[in-house]
Specification:
The protein contains five helices and five strands. The radius of gyration is 16 Å and the shape is globular. The structure holds FE2/S2 (inorganic) cluster (2 copies). One FE2/S2 (inorganic) cluster binds next to loops.
Amino acid sequence: MLINGEFQIDQKQLPPGTRLIDVLREQVGITGTKEGCGRGECGACTVLVDGRPVLSCIVLAARVSGAVETVEGLAEESTALRAAFARRAAFQCGFCTPGQIVRGTALLRRGLPESEAELRTAMSGNICRCTGYEGIVDALRDAEADDGAAPDVPFADQTWSRTS
Ligand code: FES
Ligand code: FES
């Protein structure tokens, strides 16, 4: 497999039973992909394999031979979406956010579903315990409408303050 166009992995060298997420986090050392449930239920570990979202916690690395894209590899492509997440407060703890960004980027590539219900269904494999999903849906719509201009709230520059 080729990870983010940069890391070539020979599956024959991996211990039996190695999962895709283990390759990413432990072998390669890129930790943007998060492990939540570890059993295919929450979507935190979502990455793209040949452009399709997969749950890397339940995929054996030995079965992956294509191009893997993680949230790190999608950083440039997801600039507008990440900025929209910040602008729309589409995250709180942030644990689900890499998976949301990865699945959202895959959806944006082919165009978002028109109805809100369809969009929520398309994102339903990615659970968020914090936000209630409104901000996530709004951020996806913002990113789709983005004209390529520089975002007005750069992701890395977002600042927060407490009122009490
Ligand atoms: S960590 Fe993979 S689906 Fe939850
Ligand atoms: S922001 Fe906390 S789980 Fe989604």
